[in-house]
Amino acid sequence: MSKLGTLGARLHHGEIGYDFVKNRKIWYGISILITITAIVGLAVRGLHMGIEFQGGAVFTTPKNTSVSVATAEEYAEDASGHDAIVQKLGDGSLRIQVAGIDTGTSDKIKDELADDLGVDAEQINAELVGPSWGEQIANKAWQGLGIFMVLVVIYLAIAFEWRMAVAAFVALIHDITITVGIYALVGFEVTPGTVIGLLTILGYSLYDTVVVFDSLKEQTRDITKQTRWTYSEIANRSINSTLVRSINTTVVALLPVAGLLFIGGGVLGAGMLNDISLSLFVGLAAGAYSSIFIATPLVADLKELEPGMKTLRKRVLAKRAHGAAEDELRDAPVTDDDAYDDEEAAPAVVGPRSQPASRGRGRGRTQGKRR
Q: Which terms does the record give in the GO molecular function aspect (predicted)?
């Protein structure tokens, strides 16, 4: 068995573990700080919306275009009078986006780009995108997000309980806010691929959370019939018992996404891969974090407010205090003073001991039958 497997087995059986729930205020503070940073970045920098949401034109040059990205961007901005976004694709062609232009302006820009780049105008592919299409996508995405949230809360409330549904909802909002904020800070373009990625991470974010909740539900069955563990302690055991599984599934999911982001987007220059892979990468990492450090500790906090759980905590602590007192008395060393006190409490008998009357019976009698 590997070391990781041994570690997982020891975590599952409670032989070792880290107290995530006890240190929950630290995790809450870190999450609040990251969320505030994401919100500030979103408010200050804003989202860099793609051409699908703004409308405009996309020009694709022939393969193996020798002009650099910076030079092509300068040519496009001079020809259009608008800001341009240029990406180098894997086959060596350039993808030039210019927002806010119409059909007539697009033909003029295409001709000027062909002259500047030294290629035939017929070799440049031009596509016009209307802003209404991107707006429809955004509206559908918001509708899908709202319906998804409602269904998730209803399902978790039925399958588990409403406190777990609330905790999962908070974790989802946490993950989406961080992902969108990082998009604003990094400056990546928001495209329909980004929207797809955001909707996809919601399922991944819930996966680890539901796994921990299922373990917690199983371990807290008939919890009030015992006095060994509080609800928070059992919640912490649930996190530890599923920790290695959560790490394994997250790492396995992150590896291909990292390949898309750093190799497909960075090396090969595939723009659409950047858009969808960044949202997936950040969302997967944030979802794994929130399921361990946010969702389950929050459930423990909500459950500990119940009168039954408060009574259980008092019983558990009282039993431990009583057991600690007994252990202290049992382990206390015996001193000379204690021995002296014992002697005073039970003094030794001095002088001849009186024999029981039964031992003197029959002495001095003559042998023979009794008459």
A: protein-transporting ATPase activity
